[in-house]
Amino acid sequence: MGRRPARCYRYCKNKPYIKSRYLRGVPEPKIRIFDVGNKRAGVDVFPCVVHMFSDEREQLSSEALEAARIACNKYLTKYAGKDSFHLRIRAHPYHVLRINKMLSCAGADRLQTGMRHAFGKPQGVVARVKIGQILMSVRCKKAHVETTIEALRRAKFKFPGRQKIVISKKWGFTKYNTAEYAQMRREGTLITDGNQAKYVAKRGRLVVPEEKDE
Predict the structure, then answer these.
(1) How far is Cα 27 from Cα 33, in angstroms, rounded to an integer?
(2) By the 8 A CB rule, do 197 and 43 touch?
(3) Summary mean pLDDT of the chain
(4) N or C, which terminus of the chain has less Cβ within 10 Å?
């Protein structure tokens, strides 16, 4: 018995139903890798970032997230180079789907009329996303922005619903605008920390200025 199509589980209907000690036997999510490309590159290497965000409140299966990751990664690797970008999947599948399995063999017509609204058993996991929630982010150099937009456009076809692609004003995956980041780096108030930047607070020892001789 194959998977049901996405339209069966597209809408956020009930409360979140997550894996716990009471809910066991949940299948592993199809997506296992959330960062691909040159993820070890420092924060100064990739100044530009492009986001794909959801324009609907819906559920995205782990299979769809994995398919989008593969599609985007393949295009970027082919046209930009495997060390020219850092792709991050921002939606994580936690919500467990249920299915009430029926017998589908020959002569099972009388067994098909099961109980309505039956609870069902765990079938897979999905990510519940809101309007405006970022699904995928790619940081790259300015020369590869157009290639990145095309890669994310191709990844959009793996998802149901509407998504939009935007070029961010931030520097890479940091929370600082490009101009603000450059100024703070010159002033020494920001230091690099992997693919992020840490703010250095103006605290520490008080230095008493020397008294001038009158």
Answers:
(1) 16
(2) yes
(3) 91
(4) C
